[in-house]
Amino acid sequence: MEANKQALLHGPLFSRSAPLDGRNAASRISAYVYGNVLILSALIPVTTSAEYVGILIVLGTALSTFLGHAFAEGVRQSVQQNRPISTRERWMDLRDSVPILTSAVLPCLILATAGIGRLEPRTAQLLAEVVMLIRIGGIVFVIERLNGARPRRSILFEAMLLAAAATTVVVVKVIITH
Description:
Blueprint: H1 2-10, H2 22-43, H3 55-81, H4 87-96, H5 98-102, H6 105-115, H7 121-137, H8 139-146, H9 155-177
């Protein structure tokens, strides 16, 4: 029982015997960062109302970014290897781009609660934005997990600093564009 608790608290999420290779880890981290930033950017200018909560904008952003990222990774890999990539490699690029799609799940669920009248639309939008900031701060945890490293004591502080930096970027964007 004690060993299971240790593995749960200190082992990588969805534990593997070995961490991802560098290429896959870097690709997934890139997709995670890219997806979270673009979903947050899509959420900010959305004007919510009782009839319109912006779910389609978030879904469209996630899907188009997912496809674009996978395509760009394939082109990068083809140029890097100086040959067309195989079907297997294309599937790997799609798999490695999945974190972009997962970036839209929570914001869409939150916006859906406004769509069915359980939350005020503006409250749902703000909550979805806060969730995205937390995900952006959580990038440091994702990097640790994908590298197969144990969480360090300073990681929570690093996550808060990253979320604060992301908040600053969002505030500047809102001031400049609105």
